[in-house]
Amino acid sequence: MIKKSFFLLILFFIYISMLFSENLLVLRGNPSQGCLLFGEISDKVERIFLDYKKVPSDKQKFIIGFDRDEKLNHIITIVLKNGKMYSTNFKINRSSYDIQRIDNIPKKYVQKPKNVKLVKRIKNEAKLLNNARNRIAENTKLYISKIVKPVKGGRITGAFGSQRIINDNPESPHNGLDIAAPTGTTISAMANGLVRLIGDYFYNGKFVLLDHGSGLNSIYIHMSKICVSKWDYVVTGDKIGEIGSSGRSTGAHLHWGINKEDKRINPQLLLKNSDKVFLRIRK
Ligand SMILES: [Zn+2]
Fold first, then answer.
1. How many angstroms is it from 158 CA to the middle of ligand 1?
2. How far apart are the first and last CA of the chain?
3. Per the domain annotation, does 109 fall within a domain?
4. pLDDT band at 2 (very low <50, low <70, confident <90, very high)
């Protein structure tokens, strides 16, 4: 009996201390390789550091991206306006990817384009896309709201992170999610953002690149039709194009890619539990 009331008393004190403690930082999302995490800080926080590197925030909100092959152990630190410092270690989950080995493929099927004009075009297009992403990385505003799947329905035909090893040569991993749907199906913006680049490229076909701020960008490729112009501001769910098979594509589908600066983000991880709190720093 005494034991039980002692236990209840302790619970009561924990409850009271939780009522009076304050959230200084909250992190939400799926803590895994390839994830995007959403953070909020109280107005007492002056600076945030992830693994000792400064993380920018906008109106007390910030985002963190972890790459496909990110290390698992991290440390998050906050410095308050009064100079106090708090740190917490956390671990993210390892993600598994589908690795496919294909051997004995005749050389002529795996050769890269050799035509000088075409090689020049491909190089130039990669440079334009890279430049646009670098400019997005300089944008410290954060437009992001909630994230939605850009296609209603559809069938997932290509997972993020999968990789093919052809005749012992590893190809670059699949940096996005493929969603197959009939040509003409609406493609919507995954979140609020600015249209930073549109084009019709050799590999991508017709595409739209959105800037969500804080280095976060999303790309929608192989479209049959682009429905926005450069510098348009779109909100979550706005129509930006239609499904197609333009560029290097073997059938009507959307390739949906997300990058946070140089980190490759898995879109599928954003479609479930991205609101779930997994870390708090309390005063
Ligand atoms: Zn794809």
1. 6
2. 34
3. yes
4. low
Q: Are 148 and 200 in contact (CB under 8 A)?
A: no
As a whole number of angstroms, the distance between CA 273 and CA 31 comes to 10
Contacts of 100 (CB under 8 A, 6+ apart): 162, 163, 164, 165
Query: Hey, what amino acid is at 90?
Result: F
Q: Same structural domain for residues 105 and 182? A: yes
Instruction: Count how many domains the chain has.
Output: 2
The parent domain of residue 29 ranges over 2-95+276-282
Do 90 and 30 have their domain in common? yes
pTM of the model: 0.89
- Model confidence over 128-173: pLDDT tens digits? 999 999 998 888 889 887 899 999 999 999 999 999 888 888 888 9
Residue 21 makes CB contacts below 8 A (sequence gap 6+) with 282, 283
CATH number of the structural domain spanning residue 9: 2.60.40
Report how far ligand 1's centroid is from the alpha carbon of 213 (Å).
23
Q: How far is the CA of 72 from the centre of ligand 1 (A)?
A: 26
**For residue 231, with 0-12 CB atoms within 10 Å meaning exposed, 13-18 middle and 19 or more buried, which class applies?**
exposed
